[in-house]
């Protein structure tokens, strides 16, 4: 299993799926999001990945960070599934994503297994194409 971590996040790859999880509760700032994206690019070896991104411990994600992610955060991804805490957050997140028109398939889930299933479906479709 391939792993990489820094002071606040851990990444690992299992069966062709990239996973990440924050080590503690975080208020993301611009420096932190830059380090997260850099670490993801490193573990991905600058190749596209299917990513399960557990954001349950994120307590703040300011607009400047969202803007940075819109520009640089979707590189080297085939798809991303965010794991969040509540169904209300999931609804809001997915509504926002539909309006935003992400460069890659991106969806929020409250269940990790369903997130992985969704990414595997995308992977299988891409492999067949």
TrEMBL record:
<dbReference type="Pfam" id="PF25056">
    <property type="entry name" value="DUF7793"/>
</dbReference>
<feature type="domain" description="DUF7793">
    <location>
        <begin position="11"/>
        <end position="122"/>
    </location>
</feature>
<protein>
    <recommendedName>
        <fullName>DUF7793 domain-containing protein</fullName>
    </recommendedName>
</protein>
<dbReference type="InterPro" id="IPR056695">
    <property type="entry name" value="DUF7793"/>
</dbReference>
């Amino acid at each position: 299993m391939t792993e990489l971590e820094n002071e606040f996040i851990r990444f690992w790859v299992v069966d062709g799926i990239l996973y990440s999880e924050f080590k503690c509760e975080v208020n993301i700032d611009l420096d932190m999001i830059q380090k997260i994206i850099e670490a993801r690019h490193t573990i991905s070896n600058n190749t596209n990945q299917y990513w399960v991104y557990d954001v349950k411990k994120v307590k703040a994600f300011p607009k400047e960070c969202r803007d940075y992610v819109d520009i640089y955060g979707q590189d080297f991804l085939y798809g991303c599934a965010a794991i969040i805490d509540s169904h209300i957050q999931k609804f809001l997140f997915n509504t926002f994503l539909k309006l935003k028109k992400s460069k890659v398939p991106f969806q929020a889930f409250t269940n990790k297994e369903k997130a992985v299933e969704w990414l595997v479906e995308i992977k299988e479709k891409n492999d067949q194409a």
